[in-house]
Amino acid sequence: MSNSVLGLSIDCADAAKLAQFWADVLGREVNPQPTAEFAAIDANDSTQGPRLTFHQVPDAKTLKNRLHRPGDAQGIGSKLPACSNTHFA
Fold first, then answer.
1. Confidence of residue 89 (pLDDT cuts 50, 70, 90)
2. What sections of 32-86 are H helices per DSSP?
3. I need a labelling partner for 82 at 20 to 30 A (CA). Which of 1, 17, 25, 49 fits?
4. Which H or E element spans position 55?
């Protein structure tokens, strides 16, 4: 038996900004009409990973965001320094 991750839901302060950050890192497009309250990035095929959804929450962030991807098969690590100047609350 195997498991598949179909999607990840991420809480944030500004969904559109964080979705654009991850779209840039992953080389994907943010779905049309993102807002500060909700944004999504669909995977065009199964090799792109899961669908990502971003939801604005009223709670202030108290801990680090922790999303871990095993390995670096798509060269994501090399793209992060270029995007790392962006700060998200």
1. very low
2. 76-83
3. 49
4. strand 51-56
CATH code for residues 1-57:
3.10.180.10
Length of the chain: 89
46 — pLDDT class (breaks 50, 70, 90): low
Where exactly are the structural domains of the chain? 1-57
Q: What average pLDDT does range 67-78 have in this prediction?
A: 55
Residue pair 55/38 in contact by the 8 Å Cβ criterion: yes
Under 8 Å between Cβ of 87 and 20: no
Instruction: Judge contact between 88 and 60, C-beta under 8 A.
Output: no
In degrees rounded to 5, what are phi and psi of residue 14? -135, 100
User: Taking a C-beta distance cutoff of 8 angstroms, is the pair 10, 18 a contact?
Assistant: yes
pTM score of the predicted model? 0.72
